[in-house]
Amino acid sequence: MTTSSSRALIISGGWPGHQPHRFAEIIRGMLEGAGLQVTAADTLDVLDDGGALRDYALIVPNWTMGQLSGDRSKHLRAAVEAGTGLGGFHGGMGDAFRENTEFQFMVGGQFAAHPGDIHRYGVDLTATDHPITRGLSRFEIESEQYYMHVDPSNTVLATTTFSGEHVAWIEGTVIPAVWVRRYGQGRVFYSSIGHDPREFEHPTVAELHRRGLLWAAGSLA
């Protein structure tokens, strides 16, 4: 079960190349448009109070790379395990805190590479009966195509297939691009899309992420 709170926390920082503060503005607009009260933080100090984290319906890690201390990691994981949702995308959650394997276990995967850097690729919806993907269809996006190491217990909602153009030996490899999972009582949503804020101008991308974050918050059945 998820928390009944209508509050969300966005934690932004880390590698500046992913424009975390611009993405925070976009996410904030999505969540406030759905009626959530949003707190934006630009420091990991917000994770020092483990009890306060449990008052949020949703926490959005928006922090590529960086380091997460033992206590802060423990507080975040405990909040999600108790019912707070966790949602994020691209490097802000899938390439955050590379040394913290317990965080990666909670997320359900970790960035490994993006062969070809930024290029156009397809995303196939594989679970079209889920409330996050219902009514959406395959799309193409120009972004970093993430090659992920992924937990097989995830519920995969979308995949991407590597052509082999940039790395020949992975031709035809299908990698999850969007998934959900449970971590204790908490809902977890992740999408590997979202290298540049302009990608959220794509209507399917924007709707996919909006629904995913609201699902993690418990605001979407």
Account of the protein in words:
Residues 7-216 form the ThuA-like domain. The protein has 221 residues and is α/β, with parallel strands linked by helices. It has one domain (7-217): Class I glutamine amidotransferase (GATase) domain (Rossmann fold), CATH 3.40.50. It is 26% helix and 32% strand. The chain contains 6 helices and 11 strands. It has helices spanning 20-33, 50-53, 70-82, 90-94, 101-107, 203-217; strands spanning 7-14, 37-41, 58-64, 85-89, 109-113, 118-125, 139-144, 147-150, 155-161, 174-183, 186-191. The chain has a 9-stranded mixed sheet, with helices on both faces. Strands 5-8 form a two-stranded antiparallel ribbon. The protein starts with 6 loop residues before the first strand and ends with a helix. 47% of the residues are buried.
Q: Could you give a quick summary of the protein structure above?
A:
This protein has 221 residues and is of the alpha/beta class. The protein has one domain: Class I glutamine amidotransferase (GATase) domain (Rossmann fold), CATH 3.40.50.880.
**On the 0-100 scale, what is the average pLDDT?**
96
Helix content: 25-40%
Q: Could you say which overall geometry the principal axes of the C-alpha atoms support?
A: globular
Q: What count of helical segments does DSSP give?
A: 6
Report the β-strand fraction as a percent range.
25-35%
Order of helices and strands: EHEHEHEHHEEEEEEEH
Specify the CATH class.
Alpha Beta
Strand order of the largest sheet: 2-1-3-4-11-10-9-6-7
Overall structural class, as computed from helix and strand content, comes to alpha/beta
Distance between the termini: 11 Å
**Oligomeric state, counting identical vs distinct chains:** single chain
Instruction: Please identify which CATH superfamily we are dealing with.
Output: Class I glutamine amidotransferase (GATase) domain
Q: Uncertain regions: pLDDT < 50 for 5+ in a row? A: none
Q: Based on DSSP secondary structure assignment, what is the total number of beta strands?
A: 11
Question: Under the CATH scheme, which architecture would be assigned?
Answer: 3-Layer(aba) Sandwich
What is the CATH third-level topology name?
Answer: Rossmann fold
Task: Give the C-alpha Rg.
Answer: 16 Å
Largest sheet: 9 strands, mixed
Number of domains: 1
